[in-house]
């Protein structure tokens, strides 16, 4: 009797996963990634809006803001550690257990930030503790994405991996929407209230969100691909060693694909636009709440574009969808600052909305693209580490670089060219990869999965 196609919505015994199981997986990945990225983004927003004054004021006004943005980037340096740990344990013990622990770690770190005394209260210990908690967030974020992606894509029917894979991806713009909306609400009483107490509320609300996310994820079954690997006792003993022994170049190229998206996305998710547009000494000098509402609105367009891109990638392929996305993203990059610099909230929103359409098209297909690049036995390690490296090269210090460029040149033109350059890097990396949409994902097809998807290398 023929073997059913593994990893395409089939369980280890060959029975098709029910639609109810699939809906539960999609819901759990959306909720879990939303909670994780809500936590991650509220830190970035606070770093752009209040942390310079509350934790780094002795460094001086200009340098304090750079230090505040550096703490956003520092967490990215620890994402590879989270990715290595999650990849190792995820390929050995399963996707589900890793997702539970990353959620708990992120929530605990976020809540503690909300309780942290400022520099005025405890001196140098305040920024040190802040950085340590941000490091824990980075470790959690590094492990979260790969597990969420594989739970979604490995449960999906072969012809619908793009749309299923978009479920953890839309958790990012939903997390941005939620974080921006909560920040905007607590900023309504005024900037003084926000700096004194209001900024803490979004961090403390994380406790409730973590409980919801934990409950939802507990009810999800393990990935069918990992369950089949476990049943056959074919799990990799040292998955990270095998990954870098055979697929180092692929990891680098995949990382650059994400870097092109991440550097541009972190203009808002990293808090830079929020800071730039609300700086009372800057050229825009808008009030905090309207800017946060504009970012909230752009999160909606990002969400819609991400979902559409995942759906389209099932019809025209991941590679073609990405190429369209890079073109749209480049157009958005050149429109962004001219619209923001009008100091009109409506035009600021328009600039962000246009940008997020391109961001959605270069993010929606990523889960399916990454999952189809790596063999089943090392897939968690491959997608997690590629993602973590891409985050460092792309978004880690994008807000810091933007802040330094503006301070050095007195203009946002330099930032535009930096973002355009990163977009082109992403496009080139995409062009180097073959489209592997629909490739079997299960352990029966490891030999086919191990063939290089990079143009110019042996594909035989």
Automatic annotation (TrEMBL):
PROSITE patterns, per the entry: MFS, SUGAR_TRANSPORT_1
Membrane topology category: Multi-pass membrane protein
One Pfam family of this chain: Sugar_tr
Lineage top rank: taxon: Bacteria
Primary residence: membrane
Gene3D superfamilies: MFS general substrate transporter like domains
Protein name: MHS family MFS transporter
Protein species of origin: Microbacterium gallinarum
